[in-house]
Amino acid sequence: MPSKVDTTMKPHTLLVLIIVALTSIEGLAQGTRQQVIVTKDSIALRLTPSTSDLPSKYAMIGLQLQVLEMSSGGGWYKVKIGEQKGYQLTHTENYWVAASDVFQEPTESRVSIVLDVSAFQSGSLSNAHRISHQDYIYKQRKTNLTEPFYVGCTYTNNSPELTCSPPFSICAQIYQPEKYFLYDDRLSETDAVDMAELQNRFSTLFENGTITPFYRVTSQHQIKAITEKVMFSKLVMKDPGCYAEQYSGTEFRTLRSKTDTVNANVYFSAIPIETPELFNTHLQGGVQTVYFLFLLNITFEDDAKESVVRRIVVWWPKCL
Q1: Which residues contact 209 (CB under 8 A, 6 or more apart)?
Q2: Are residues 47 and 122 in the same domain?
Q3: Domain end position, chosen among 76, 104, 132
Q4: C-beta separation of 272 from 194 below 8 A
Q5: In angstroms, rounded to a whole number, what is the distance separating the alpha carbons of residues 155 and 22?
């Protein structure tokens, strides 16, 4: 007589299975919390992971997406918007994108990259020391202005769900010319002697005609060459402001596309842009935010290659 097999679930076996299941779920959540970024002009967003499914929407260049899930073969990502504010997509929308349509940060890198935006500089930008725009405006008398300097406007957030977060993004706050929200109580926050001096500090930074985004790449490995493509995109809203709701579109163009021979461990690149370019658009509405997107292909002396994508998000206060 064949022996019977006990199919009753033992309590310790059940506990083990529950622990394994919870571990798998936790690992999936941690493993899919990464960000990806759109580097093509636009990519299709679909409701299912298949090219036979017609696109429901399109994501434009420079948009950051948060990965929620990966298809079994790894060729598709289920994503939602990876930005603090849901201008282009709402935070409740989920879509599938082809993995080949987005850029994902490599797990290992030979380079480190620093990005900044100079609102004003004195001397050579590549060798200047940094002064924050807050110190220039509010603590200028305690700031070293005798040596070459630039006034930087960038900052980062640590939360992965915020726009100004690593690995891809850093933000820069500027002001639209003549829109500084200057009131008498702000004077007490500064070392300016009067409102005219405070106004002049803002004017020096934000009415000089240009801002200059730049980056510096460093590596312990000698860099042979860098192919650089810099894109400039504008997020346009029908009525831009602190509570903008209606997305009009994204306007973009290429600012620079070139290859430089480096043969060094450090590479510096700056690209001045005229300030009016930030605020004007050909689309219906007004500019809410602008992106500078840096697409870098780096070749090292040993012919190893690495791609790097970084983004500077530039914004300006639109209300108190």
Answers
A1: 274, 275
A2: no
A3: 104
A4: no
A5: 37
Same domain for 174 and 82:
no
152 and 246 within one domain: yes
Instruction: Clarify whether residues 87 and 127 are in a common domain.
Output: no
> Which amino acid type is present at position 218?
T
Contact present, 106 and 121 (Cβ < 8 Å): no
Tokens 């700056």 correspond to: 270
Domain boundary among 88, 104, 120: 104
CB 154 within 8 A of CB 213: no
Residues 147 and 240 in one domain: yes
Query: Using CA of residue 90, residue 92, residue 98, residue 101, what is the dihedral sign?
Result: positive
The total number of structural domains that make up the chain: 2
pLDDT tens string, the chain, 320 residues long: the values are: 433 334 344 444 333 333 333 333 333 344 445 899 999 999 999 999 999 999 999 999 999 999 999 999 999 999 999 999 999 999 999 999 999 999 999 999 999 999 999 999 999 999 999 999 999 999 999 999 999 999 999 998 876 667 998 899 999 999 999 999 888 778 888 999 999 999 999 999 999 999 999 999 999 999 999 999 999 999 999 999 999 999 999 999 999 999 999 999 999 999 999 999 999 999 999 999 999 999 999 999 999 999 999 999 999 999 87
Same domain, 117 and 221: yes
**Beta-strand pair 64-70/111-122:** unpaired
Residue 40 is which amino acid? K
Query: In this structure, is residue 123 part of a structural domain?
Result: yes
At 318, list the tokens.
């639109």
Query: What is the H or E stretch that residue 66 is in?
Result: strand 64-70
Kindly report the number of other CB atoms within 10 A of residue 80's CB atom. Answer: 18
